[in-house]
Each structure stands twice: as C-alpha cells, then as structure tokens.
Amino acid sequence: MENELTDKAFWANYWESKKDLAFTVPSNHTFHKLLKQIADENKPLSAIELGGFPGYYAIFLKKYFGLETTLFDFYVHGPTLKKVLTANNLTENDVDVIEGDLFNYQPKKQYDLVLSCGLIEHFHDTKDVIAHHLLFLKPGGTLFITLPNFTGINGWVQRRYDMDNYEKHNINSMNPEMLAEYCGKLGLKKVEARYYGKFSIWLENRDQQSVMTRLFIKVLWLAGKIATKIVPIESKSLSPYIVVKGTR
C-alpha cells in the first residue's frame, strides 16, 4: 500500500480551484500565539514549512519574526506564489522554495524550526512522515506540527457533506496521545500534543452545497461558537485542530 492518500494531481486541482489566495497574512494568523511562543522562547533564526504551498506560514514567520524561511512542497505553482508574496510586500528572494518529494529528498541544510500545517494526515504511516520532518531539524531545534481534528463534530460534517475530502485524510493520525508517543520514540524531548482551538467547522466544497446545507452549517457553526465562548474548552469533540510540539 502506498503511503500517500493524495497525489500531485489532487493538489494541483485543489489549489487551482481556490480563489483569492493572494491575501495579506495577518499578524493574528492561525496558530500565531503558539508560533510567537516558540519564537520568544527558542529564538529560531531559520524555519522551513513542509507541504505548505502557498507558503502562508513561511511568509508569516518572515514577515513578523524576521526568520530566514523556506517553503517545501511537491507542488508549487509559481505565479500563485508570486502573487501571495506580492500581497505581503515580499519578493521571490525573501522566501526560499524547494519543490520536491518529502520521501525522496535529502536536505542540504537543517533548520531551527520545522513546521507543517495540514500535512501528516494525508499519509498512512504517520510515524514515518514525522521522521522525515526530523531530517530537516537541527539539534536543539523545534518541531511544530498541526493537523485538523476530524474525530469530533467537524469530522461528522466532513463525512456527511464531503466524503471525498474526508477520505483523503488518515483519521487514525488524529490522536494526540499516539502522536506524542511517536515523537518520543523518534527522540524528541519536551513533547506536547493536544487538541487546539475553540469550536469551528468548515467545508472545502461549501460553494457546491445547497442553500439549506449552507444555512445549516452556518447555524451549527454559530451555535458552537457561542457555546465555546460561554464555556471555553478545547476537546476532542469541539476543537478544530490538533497541535504537536517537541525539541530535538
């Protein structure tokens, strides 16, 4: 069985279907608090975003923390990336780009911070893909991984309204305890893995849904937001993400 749940054609179609990709990455971009904590505590000078096209986190770290950043992906659409960089007052010289296969690439250098956001869940062998992250990580550096949580309400929404997208994800990878165990076995220290974020749901194919479905999703989203504002908890059922952090 191949490790990948997706292929280059899938990602080409995915990104080419997206509109308005060239937006200004804000200072409060998703996971900004966690990345600021890493920047403040560990003082990284360099970072690589794996599987991150069109490079929003590489841009975020360059723009707000001044890191030397690199974007690595096996699909990079040059014109789109240029538009995203321009929207953020950056040029193609500000962010290095490596287009390659994570499982067949031998890193030429290592980085203080290695991150991926929404990558590891697209592979069958979760431990193996994490191990390939570590090839890029300097001794003493920080690994930061995020992935969606499809084991709660958001997962039910995906199964009910977008099974094709749901099946592109390894749901078994969405287990903080298992992820922490894998990181420990791979030699990482100070490992943290947990559900992250207050309630949220989304659909990649929202525009193809009926008016009634879009209305239902909006009402469900609003109800969840109100509930977790009153009782601000992060949990398997409600949190939209899982985050993993460790040092080498």
Q: Can you walk through the features of this model?
A:
This protein has a seven-stranded mixed beta sheet. 38% of the residues lie in helices and 20% in strands. With 248 residues, it is of the alpha/beta class. The protein starts with 7 loop residues before the first helix and ends with a strand. The chain has nine helices and seven strands, in the order ααβαβαββαβαααβαβ. The protein is globular and about 50 Å long. The mean pLDDT is 93. The protein has helices at 8-17, 32-42, 56-65, 78-87, 126-134, 153-161, 163-166, 176-185, 211-230, and strands at 46-50, 68-73, 95-99, 111-117, 137-148, 189-196, 241-247. Strand 2 (68-73), helix 4 and strand 3 form a beta-alpha-beta unit. It has one domain: Rossmann fold, CATH 3.40.50.
CA-CA gap between termini: 30 Å
Number of strands: 7
| Mean pLDDT level | 93
Strand line-up of the largest beta sheet = 3-2-1-4-5-7-6
- The proportion of residues forming helix, as a percent range, comes to 25-40%
What is the fourth-level CATH superfamily? Vaccinia Virus protein VP39
Domains (count): 1
Described by the principal axes of the CA atoms, the overall outline is globular
The CATH topology turns out to be Rossmann fold
Count of alpha and pi helical runs = 9
Largest sheet: 7 strands, mixed
